[in-house]
Amino acid sequence: MVGSKNLFYGILVLMLILACNQKKVELSPNVPNEEKKSAAQLKTELTEKGFQIFDYVDEKTKDTVLMQEYYIAFLKSGPNRDQPKAVADSLQMLHMAHLGKMYELGHADISGPFGDDGDIRGITIYNTSSMEIADSLANADPMVKAGRLKIEIHPWWAAKGFGLR
Hints:
Blueprint: H1 2-20, H2 39-48, E1 53-57, E2 64-77, H3 85-104, E3 108-113, E4 120-126, H4 131-139, H5 142-145, E5 149-159
Helix pairs in contact: 1-3
């Protein structure tokens, strides 16, 4: 159990470091190293791909801020949490691989567990054009399929190009 927890936290820390160290640039979804685009260009591309967006002018900086609708999946304790240790460890590895794949494909921007032992175990923020797509991707997680986790998704708006700090 300790080895799988250490691996889990190691992968999580790596994902968070990668997410937090990204430059503050405007990128279109699923294109990691594309040149910076104007707000108008990005707005057009996102709209054409079906993303929900709006923009406003920041009164202080006079910059156009583009807001996009994302989807937060709360990963909650599921009804089947009594698998044998070997099965739970295997599911944890598959879960981490699934989250890594979602990140690599550009479908999820960040994931992580909560630090307590409550009912809500963690979150993933999906960067998809609809809640149905985010729900489908979240429910494809091996932990969800096995019943160790269940998903609750909510729409959430955030500014494009702003990182964590």
